[in-house]
Amino acid sequence: MTIKKLLIGFISLISLFVLAACTGDNEGTSPDESPDTEMESEANEDNMETESDPHANMDHSSSGEVPEDIANAEDPTYTEGSEAVIQANHMGGMDEAVATIDGSYDTTVYTVTYTPTTGGETVEDHKWVIHEEIENAEEQPYELEDEIVLEADHMEGMKGATATIDSAEDTTVYMVSYTDTETGEEVENHKWVTENELTPVE
Prior knowledge:
Elements: H1 2-28, H2 35-52, E1 71-72, E2 83-86, E3 98-114, E4 123-130, E5 147-149, E6 162-179, E7 186-194, E8 198-200
Antiparallel strand pairs: 1-3, 2-3, 2-8, 3-4, 3-6, 5-6, 6-7
């Protein structure tokens, strides 16, 4: 009888050691430390950055092509080939950059709100879309809260999107090239910067 009790006690003791070892292994392998979880976390961070900065997918550079029906500026403050300082922060690395003027045009410029055709968050007060970048644009400028369809392709999901006019202004707009002040990358033929977003180089 005593031997049987000893055996039961011995087996119970071994079972406890085995359970403790298994528990220790589980504690050592945290789900938070798994490679898959780390990759998911990084992907989520990238998505959050894109959502917080809708201009992250903006095409800073362009081919330099402009709509055929746009009018060259008659008497621009900044002539083609001259330099000016950008006073605008449509995206990172733009504000205070020294720009070279690639072209100047007299038009109506708009800020617009739209939902990308690719889905995602609504883009509010996007700067800038010009009158000639509106699908089947009427001759007269559009007014506040008018609904339009965008021909502009500055950002992913922009072309073909239905937009609402947030503001409209008749002015001179410029296509410019500059060096990004944050990354050092060359931005060529950026569309658009308005007359009042430029100041002379000192």
